[in-house]
Structures are given as structure tokens and as C-alpha cells.
Specification:
The chain is mainly β. The chain has one domain. The chain is 12% helix and 38% strand. It has 2 helices and 8 strands. The protein has a 4-stranded mixed sheet with strand order 1-4-2-3, with no helix packed on it. The two termini are 29 Å apart.
Length: 150
């Protein structure tokens, strides 16, 4: 069985082509430095590609796992999301003072998607624990968002 050709690019997904500074926290975690200046780790300049250039044609499934850059990238692509049938997003909330989840949900709704949320994973090493009246608070987390068209 043969499908369309596949092109692999070793680059971060971002809102413009060029380079970004990425902070690597360890084996599988990090962030775009400009989005989270408080993050500690090894910093590297890496190539970046604007996602919207791939959304000019029909996309059956778009998977996004971009370590906290979900909102700016989705905003940049909002007018082309009608070309996407389904999306899975690893949605990261690293800063309790600047939540992006509500805005991501609004963006998906405005683009005509139905969505669900699951697999909430607390990330306690990313930020100091906040005082809470509730046991085991998880103010910093990652969750799976699945969105599809009716």
C-alpha cells in the first residue's frame, strides 16, 4: 500500500519561519523561551516553521504537541482550521496566572469543532505549588484535547 509522499522537517512549529530559542528541561520536556522566561535548562536555537503553510489543503488529522505554544500557533492558523477535520492537542498549562485553555476552547468552537478533554497530568515540577483549599491541587498540567467536526 502506498500513500502520499512524506516530508520530514527537523523544526519546531511556530507562528513564523526562522529560528526560536528552546529551553530543554530534560529528556522530554521544554518550552519556547519567549513563552516561559522562568524555565531553567539548556537553551538552543532551533529552526522554526510556520504551521499555517501546511493548512492550505485538507488535513484529516492534525496532532499538536508543542509544549505550551498551542494558543499562539492556533491563533495564527485560526482562519485555516476549516481545512482540518480532526485535531488532537497536548494542551499545556504552565502558568496559572495566564491560562490559555479557555481561549483554545473558544478558538476551536469558533472554527466549528466539538471537543473533549481528558488525561489531565499534573506537572508539579514546572511551578511552585500554590496554596489551595483543595487537596492535591494541580495548577500546572498537561491535558489531551480532541476536536472534530460534526
Amino acid at each position: 500500500m502506498s500513500g502520499p509522499p512524506v516530508q520530514v522537517e527537523a523544526a519546531a512549529v511556530w507562528i513564523e519561519d526562522g529560528e526560536i530559542e528552546f529551553v530543554c528541561e530534560g529528556s522530554d520536556s521544554g518550552a519556547v523561551a519567549s513563552l516561559d522566561p522562568s524555565i531553567n535548562g539548556r537553551r538552543s536555537r532551533i529552526p522554526a516553521r510556520r504551521l499555517r503553510r501546511w493548512l492550505e489543503e485538507r488535513i484529516d488529522l492534525l496532532k499538536i504537541d508543542i509544549e505550551g505554544a498551542e494558543l499562539p500557533v492556533l491563533r495564527d492558523c485560526a482562519d485555516l482550521l476549516h481545512n482540518v477535520r480532526m485535531i488532537t492537542i497536548d494542551l499545556h498549562e504552565f502558568d496559572p496566572a495566564h491560562r490559555q485553555t479557555g481561549q483554545v476552547f473558544d478558538l476551536l468552537t469558533n472554527a466549528g469543532f466539538v471537543y473533549d478533554l481528558g488525561h489531565l497530568t499534573p506537572l508539579p515540577w514546572r511551578a511552585p505549588q500554590l496554596p489551595s483549599p483543595f487537596p492535591q491541587p494541580a495548577p500546572v498540567w498537561a491535558a489531551l484535547v480532541r476536536a472534530w467536526r460534526r
